[in-house]
Amino acid sequence: MNEEQRLQAGLIKPGIEKPANKVEKDYSKYFETVYTPPSLKEAKKRGKEEIAYHDDFRIEERFLGMGNGRKFYIRTYGCQMNEHDTEVMAGIFIGLGYEPTDTVDDADVILLNTCAIRENAENKVFGELGHLKPLKLEKPDLLIGVCGCMSQEESVVNKILKTYDQVDMIFGTHNIHRLPNILHEAYLSKEMVVEVWSKEGDIIENLPKVRHGNIKAWVNIMYGCDKFCTYCIVPYTRGKERSRRPHDIIQEVRQLAAQGYKEIMLLGQNVNAYGKDFEDIDYRLGDLMDDLRKINIPRIRFTTSHPRDFDDHLIEVLAKGGNLLDHIHLPVQSGSSDILKIMARKYTRESYLELVRKIKAAIPNVTLTTDIIVGFPNETEEQFEETMSLYKEVGFEMAYTYIYSPREGTPAAKMVDNIPMEVKKERLQRLNALVNEMSAEAMKPYKGKIVKVLVEGESKRNPEVLSGYTEKNKLVNFKAPRSVIGEIVEVKITEAKTWSLDGEYIGVVEEDKVMS
Ligand code: 5AD
Ligand code: SF4
């Protein structure tokens, strides 16, 4: 093992003796404590380094009881990957003896698990740090930490160092397992503890987790992204693609099934690249889904797909149905081949439509949803119209839509852009009107039909009403005894709205059939 590998495995202490990365400004006064800031340049490098798998995580004896009498609070921004990371950090806190709390006022440690995908996600975090300042002044012993994707960005770390002295710790997405050491340093040090590895660490299998609820569970199948779409910060914040071994995933899903979970969401930034990094076995997402569908758990979903690696074998396996649901989220980003090219998506409008045609031929009842970016640098009216026409042509039932947000360090951020913000906003409105219209259209046929709903709990608007999701991820509200929370029930739809369905409860579905 070389020094970098030992460092990444946490066997030697990074930072003080040997800062791994360069920063523009001299923050050497912080070097008395852990100081390993991120470097986008380093994060961009992708080698053929072997990924080592560990199951030797343990909380060192010297840290046991660190949290006795103390409470932690984690606020999570961004995607489901971040939510799942929060479950791991909560597991580590509990292992250290901390108790959870759901108010910041009550907390002894506050973590903001951040998202870097767009500027407004980042602004929310800076705003929150501002709100926390008075609390820190009131309670000097309070520890405030920033983790997640924003911590992987050099500019963010520099900004926090310069202007947010209420922050005690910054650590990155590859440093989560180091939480006990980072907390320990933060208690000892008066300076900000910064530990952000720009290059990903190995895969650690046995990190503790405190899962949110006992109905649906997230399961990581891979980490990182090597696609480098020109607008996207994720390949820099999450590192290179690396897949968990099939056996570890299958075992985790089996355990969750045994514990009574009803739905699994398989997670990865680019799940269709699953297995590409295996050198010893030829095993891809289709193979994994084929193995998972034999497990006795009613529902399995996955996110997020990249159209480029969505292969025929996967389609063939998904067509077998059973617990593999017929809803696919397939981000297209744009309907214009020219824009797709400068986004470096590596597919065209035509090849995307061809993929959709194949999926629909194999799974006739499939529901497709997508992500779209409008106002990419220099997007013309005609190119935007191509996105509108593609949306209609595919017949998407829902989309997450965004105005392009330049991310420092990505290639697109350097592109000159001649499209005014008002035009981008107007395009977003037109697209959203279409998205609403097509969602409402897709909801109409449900009226009078019976659907299967996994009941998640009380509706957010009315505690008298329960709500849950269909296999195609449609929100359904209905009245039923609270005892059916966590069950899959049948509901007869009485009203179809744009984004949800109302219905009458029929009864619990006795045994959900799982393919053998
Ligand atoms: N600006 C706007 N939207 C973005 N996304 C990713 N990067 C950006 C960006 N720089 C969107 C994409 C992606 C979703 C998670 O966020 O649509 O699929
Ligand atoms: Fe946000 Fe992407 Fe990080 Fe998820 S992976 S938290 S979407 S930047």
From TrEMBL:
Residues 211-441 form the Radical SAM core domain. InterPro entries: Elp3/MiaA/NifB-like_rSAM (IPR006638), Methylthiotransferase (IPR005839), Methylthiotransferase_CS (IPR020612), Methylthiotransferase_N (IPR013848), Methylthiotransferase_N_sf (IPR038135), MiaB_methiolase (IPR006463), rSAM (IPR007197), rSAM_horseshoe (IPR023404). Binds 2 [4Fe-4S] clusters. One cluster is coordinated with 3 cysteines and an exchangeable S-adenosyl-L-methionine. Keywords: 4Fe-4S, Cytoplasm, Iron, Iron-sulfur, Metal-binding, S-adenosyl-L-methionine, Transferase, tRNA processing. SUPFAM superfamilies: Radical SAM enzymes. [4Fe-4S] cluster 1 binds at C79, C115, C149. It is an enzyme of class 2 (transferase). It is found in: Cytoplasm. Its main location: cytoplasm. Its cofactor is [4Fe-4S] cluster. Its EC number is 2.8.4.3. Residues 444-507 form the TRAM domain. Residues 70-188 form the MTTase N-terminal domain. It catalyses: N(6)-dimethylallyladenosine(37) in tRNA + (sulfur carrier)-SH + AH2 + 2 S-adenosyl-L-methionine = 2-methylsulfanyl-N(6)-dimethylallyladenosine(37) in tRNA + (sulfur carrier)-H + 5'-deoxyadenosine + L-methionine + A + S-adenosyl-L-homocysteine + 2 H(+). Monomer. Belongs to the methylthiotransferase family. MiaB subfamily. Catalyzes the methylthiolation of N6-(dimethylallyl)adenosine (i(6)A), leading to the formation of 2-methylthio-N6-(dimethylallyl)adenosine (ms(2)i(6)A) at position 37 in tRNAs that read codons beginning with uridine. This is tRNA-2-methylthio-N(6)-dimethylallyladenosine synthase. It comes from Sporosarcina contaminans. The lineage of its organism: Bacteria, Bacillati, Bacillota, Bacilli, Bacillales. The gene is miaB.
